[in-house]
Q: What sequence folds into this?
């Protein structure tokens, strides 16, 4: 069974640009969550999608958005990039929501904003 | 609140010693508490989890204890080995009530860098 796949793995952008990251969950998983990982801040919850609906969101500004497609693949978008958006963005898939057990993480997309 | 505090941020132990990492949470409705291990350059992976209906769970050298009254839970690793060196994240489910039901999200602590010295 293929694991969670994230693309691109690395990308460099400049301030003011926008970026789209993609996540393909494990086959059969309908839940996809996104996390931002920075040194010292751990894994900060961005949002969770389940069956194409955003079910939960974290405390990030509206520049951060996402969506999920009918095949459960998910994308997240960050507009008007700021230096502080530089981070590793991880997505995780699961069979249900936060109480459903193990989250399977992708390897992440490392974003550098110059 | 949606806070999960984790301590210590770094922990260095000698091989064979025990390691303990502690987390506290603020939402009294939290009822699921997983622990993830992230080795350098790799993705986080679940190592153990506990639900609120039990106070302790063990899996070989690792164990998790939960004190719901005090709202804290801990990870215990015994007989540590160099391959236990990694960043460990605790997490707690945060419940959001909404019309027609409730949803839950997983909030992580800030992580503990464990270094096991051979």
A:
């Amino acid at each position: 069974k293929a694991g969670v796949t994230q693309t691109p793995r690395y990308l460099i952008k400049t301030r003011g640009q926008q970026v789209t990251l993609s996540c393909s969950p494990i086959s059969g998983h309908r839940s996809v969550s996104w996390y931002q990982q920075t040194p010292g801040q751990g894994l900060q919850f961005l949002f969770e999608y389940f069956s194409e609906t955003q079910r939960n969101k974290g405390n990030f500004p509206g520049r951060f958005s996402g969506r999920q497609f009918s095949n459960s693949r998910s994308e997240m978008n960050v507009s008007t990039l700021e230096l502080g958006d530089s981070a590793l963005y991880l997505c995780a898939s699961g069979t249900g929501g936060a109480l459903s057990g193990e989250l399977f993480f992708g390897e992440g997309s490392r974003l550098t904003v110059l | 609140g949606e806070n999960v505090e984790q301590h210590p941020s770094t922990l260095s132990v000698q091989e064979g010693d025990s390691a303990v990492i502690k987390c506290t949470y603020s939402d009294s409705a939290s009822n699921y508490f997983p622990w993830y291990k992230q080795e350098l350059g790799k993705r986080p992976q679940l190592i153990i989890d506990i639900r609120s209906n039990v106070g302790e769970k063990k899996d070989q050298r690792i164990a998790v204890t939960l004190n719901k009254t005090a709202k804290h839970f801990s990870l215990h690793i015994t007989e540590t080995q160099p391959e236990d060196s990694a960043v460990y994240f605790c997490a707690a489910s945060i419940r959001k009530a909404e019309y027609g039901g409730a949803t839950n999200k997983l909030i992580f602590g800030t992580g503990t860098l464990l270094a096991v010295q051979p």
In short: The mean pLDDT of chain B is 91. Chain B touches chain A at residues 2, 6, 9, 31-32, 34, 36, 42-46, 49, 89, 91, 93-94, 96, 103-111 (CB under 8 Å). Chain B is about 0% helix and 60% strand. The longest strand of chain B covers residues 86-98.
